[in-house]
Amino acid sequence: MTSGGFEAFKSHLSMLLRDLPAGTTADLTDVAVAYWDGTCIVGTYLRDGGRLDEAFDFDENAWENWHDEFVGWLAAPTFTERDELRTRLSRAVRHADDPAGPDTSGASQGWLQVAYRQQR
Fold first, then answer.
1. Among the four residues 21, 25, 62, 85, which has the most C-beta atoms within 10 Å?
2. Where are the alpha helices (DSSP H) in the chain?
3. Model pTM?
């Protein structure tokens, strides 16, 4: 499929995840999930035992690599509420709002402040 297919998939996935509780993943493949971080979709690999591992770019390369799995997922979407992700996201929001916390002036954490303000 074209990049337009990817954009449509990503848009649909974003809509679904935004409506679900924080810490919920879309279980796209046996080794990869995606979640809404408050501003965008984040792709994450799974380790043995189904725990979250490192993030990957949720982009057209991921779409090309897992196209069939992503399309199959659309036919029967599955989601998992993950306590470890919920905890990770809530810690990130707390740190972003804590004036005594870590320096949040960097771009890597700036989205957290915006996402937290949007939730208020």
1. 25
2. 3-18, 60-65, 67-75, 83-97, 107-119
3. 0.75
The tokens of 14 are what?
């974003």
Starting at the edge strand found earlier in the chain, the sheet holding 32-36 runs 52-56, 41-46, 32-36, 24-26, 79-81
> What's 80's DSSP letter?
E
The crossing angle, in degrees rounded to 10, of helices 3-18 and 67-75 is 40
Q: Alpha-carbon distance 43 to 49, whole Å?
A: 17
Gap between the Cα atoms of 6 and 3, Å rounded = 5
Mark the ranges of the chain whose per-residue pLDDT is less than 50. Answer: 1, 102-120
